[in-house]
Design goal:
With 172 residues, the protein is an alpha+beta fold. The chain has helices spanning 16-21, 72-87, 99-102, 108-122, 137-149, 157-171; strands at residues 2-4, 7-10, 47-54, 59-65. Strands 1-2-3-4 form a 4-stranded mixed beta sheet, with no helix packed on it. α5 crosses α6. It is globular. The termini are far apart.
C-alpha cells in the first residue's frame, strides 16, 4: 500500500467485491490506521481513521477506537451520526443514555467481578476460528422489511443483519 494525502491506495490488483468474496485475512490489518494492540499508551490517539481506495474505485474505511473511551453503543451513535452527516441527512443522532436504568450496577466492584468472571469463560487461549457470513443485498432487503414489520423504525442494513444474527444466537 502506498500513502496518498490522507488516503491509502490499495495495490492488490483485486476489486473490492472480489476481496469481500474471498478475503485475505492476512491483509485485513493493512486497512487499519495502525496495527491493533491491547493496551493504550500515553500519546496515542483515541480515534484513528484510514480511508482505503481500491483501484476499482471502491473504498474501505478502517477505524481504530480506544475501548477505554468508546463502548459499542457510543461507537454506534458516532458512526450513525457520521454517516448521516456524510449523506447530508438532517436527522440529528442523539445517544441512548438509558443503559444504567436497564442494567443497574449493585456496586462498581460487582460489575468488575462479573466482567472478570465472563471474560474467564468466554476468552480462552489456543486455537480459534473465524467465521464469515456474506449476505446478498436482496436477502438484506428482506431482513429490513421483516424488521420493519416487527415495529423497528427504518432499520439500517447493519441493524437488520445484526438483529438477525443476534436472534439466531439467542435461539441456539
Amino acid at each position: 500500500m502506498s500513502y496518498n494525502g490522507g488516503a491509502r491506495r490499495v495495490k492488490c490488483h483485486r476489486r473490492l467485491d472480489e476481496f469481500l468474496e474471498h478475503p485475505d485475512h492476512g491483509l485485513i490489518n493493512k486497512f487499519l490506521p495502525f496495527e491493533p494492540f491491547n493496551e493504550s499508551s500515553a500519546g496515542n490517539h483515541v480515534t484513528n481513521v484510514q480511508l482505503n481506495i481500491f483501484e476499482c474505485g471502491g473504498i474501505a474505511i478502517g477505524l481504530c477506537v480506544s475501548h477505554k473511551i468508546v463502548d459499542g453503543a457510543a461507537l454506534h451513535t458516532f458512526l450513525k451520526g457520521w454517516t448521516n452527516m456524510a449523506r447530508g441527512a438532517q436527522e440529528v443522532v442523539y445517544p441512548n443514555l438509558t443503559a444504567p436504568s436497564l442494567f443497574p450496577a449493585k456496586s462498581s466492584t460487582w460489575l468488575r467481578d462479573e466482567m472478570m468472571a465472563w471474560s474467564q469463560t468466554l476468552i480462552r487461549e489456543g486455537n480459534c476460528c473465524t467465521k464469515r457470513f456474506v449476505f446478498r443485498s436482496d436477502a438484506i432487503a428482506r431482513l429490513q422489511a421483516r424488521a420493519a414489520g416487527n415495529g423497528v423504525n427504518s432499520p439500517t442494513r447493519v441493524e437488520a443483519v445484526s438483529g438477525f444474527i443476534w436472534k439466531c444466537s439467542m435461539a441456539a
